[in-house]
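User: Okay, second chain of the day. Same drill as before: sequence in, structure tokens out.
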Amino acid sequence: MRRFLDSLYRFGGYISALQLTAIMVMVVLQVSGRVLDKGLLALGMDSLGLQIPGLAELAGFLLLGATFTGLAYTLSVGGHIRVDLLHRVLPESIQKALDLLVTVIALAITGYATWYSVLLTYDSYDFGDLSIGMVPVPLWIPQAVMVVGLIWLLVALLDVLAGLITGRLAHIKDEAPLE
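Assistant: Same drill. Structure tokens below.
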């Protein structure tokens, strides 16, 4: 089971990285196209009109996907920002109780967000909502990616909670990086 969960988290990290790479490629192509067009105009030639329609909107959807699909991976490698100034000075027993409490709260918030994101995605699909930019994208597609990322985060948080309860993890920060 451990290998499966680590693979699941890693897959989310790969998907996130691919989406960030796609954003970078689109921006580089857009900038290169503009530079080429400006150069052609400076030489007295006609512009090629190299533009990626709706780049900002598509990049926004990809950024949403990259953010949410990378959450579980980031948690599994200890990459989430944690403020532990108080945590470090507390007795061990209180640290463990605090870790359990924080994980349960995170599970509740993530569960709430997941539930309502599923409802939003279904409504967008049911009503046929489209984005309002140059490229009409069915909104349920980026919303579904967000839901998948939230579900992955729920699984990762349940994994952390189980690790804390069973003693596999002494603290939330003990989650070892994936190999």
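The two ends are 15 Å apart (CA to CA).

User: Thanks, on to the next one.
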